[in-house]
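Dear Dr. K.,

Following up on our conversation at the group meeting, I've run the structure prediction for Methyltransferase domain-containing protein from Friedmanniomyces endolithicus. I'm pasting the input sequence below exactly as I used it, so you can double-check it against your construct before we proceed with anything downstream. Let me know if the numbering doesn't match what you have in your notebook.
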Amino acid sequence: MQQRQIINMTTNINFQINGLSDRDKAATDANRRAWDAIADWWEHKQSEGGDDGNDMFTQCLLPEVEQLSDWQPGETVLDLGAGSGIICRMFAAKGAKVTGLDFSDLMLEKARERAETNGLKIEYDFIDLMDIESMKNYARMHSEGFDIITISTTLKSLPSLEPIAEALPLLLKRGGRVVNVDLHPAFSKPAGHRGMEIFEDPETGKQQLKTYIKVMRYLDIPPSKSEAVRGQPEPLTTYHRPFWSLLEPFFRNGLVMDAMREPAFKTEGGDMKHPQSYHNFPQTPMLLAFRLKHR
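The predicted structure tokens came back this morning:
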């Protein structure tokens, strides 16, 4: 608890974040409460098929993080928005020294329990990515920096990217890599709407499924409620950003992008039991992954 107080620099959960509107402050606080509320449910859903998360993690997200990070023995890893620790465990299993940061105490509790169960040594700390002073303080406490910083499906839940964009250069070693993976800004919610048509092939009589993405609004979409996984007990507030808005804060703070990927499911035959599944959209990337480095 003492360590949390040093890092967080605040004892009131209704913290004040400079530059944010009252609405965004309230939404950030609501997202914290939502993650605490769904922690047990989330952990159960993400561990149904094993220890590596659901199919989005195992087939799309984790392979991109592994490839773009290019982890080498002896390199340190910092995972921002670590949640229940899926990415942390992937690197720790390789032998990396890993630290995970998150603003949900209950998600961190799940992450620690899973690390202990798997016999993995991972350090987890509480921090709010919207609190720039706490982020700077954490960087001072870890002045040696980190070789790899990962950010997974986290930026979309932040009302502003300025604090994390300002903190990353302070946390990243020279020669280090930042790897971000999140929902695709054009082809996933809330901009991209999945559409489908089911028809009979006149030559074979077999049912055919045709899928497509419909983008009706892209440049300016207001904050919206969303479920990270369908059926979760409480929704989250998410923030859509077109490409330029997503990347510009990092460029302005001295980082450059040197790699990008757009992973999609490649499930043979798709998933006819669930027509809306991204398994039926093999030409549509569900995620966007990119790597940043010091300029």
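Two things stood out to me. Confidence is low (pLDDT under 50) at residues 1-17. The first helix runs from residue 2 to 8.

Best regards,
J.T.
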